[in-house]
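Q: Hi! First time doing this. I have a protein sequence and I read that you can turn it into a structure. Is that right? Here it is:
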Amino acid sequence: MITEKILKLIVPFLFAIGFGWTLYSILSYDGYYHGEPLTKFNIIINERPKFYYDGNTKISFYAFTTLKYKNEFRISNGSNHLVRENEIMTKEIENIKSEDTIELAILKSDIKKLKKNSEIIKVVGLTIKNKLLIDPEKVKDYDRINKRENLFFNYLILVGLIIFGIRIYTKSRKKI
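A: Yes, that's right. Below is the predicted 3D structure, encoded as structure tokens:
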């Protein structure tokens, strides 16, 4: 059985960690596309896109490089979801070969990253042979829904933590 002294030490610590994690997760949604201005340009692929999947974190994405830039371009988050749920689109992405020319749509704010040649660039739109594969509007719609669900879940956790903290506090005050 946990003694009252240990409980008084552990509960605030766990509450602080949970509260901090929840606030951090609510405030950190950089991976979503919200409809910011995009830049489109044609680029030659250096190597075939590779699919990466981390089973521990359930994160998956396609990554590729280009001849002109050394940055890693990633089809991730909403873009990746659209590709993975459409078998034809998945095959088209996986059939891109070295030295194929594609049109990318990236955030205008990511243009600075291209000059650094080392940062990851999120692909928001992709056109291959004049065929739009990844539509930025669909990415925006998917990300909006996904963000709303995640925010709702995190707010529920936050409210639960606040209620739990208040209950522990009131119980400890009654014993004094």
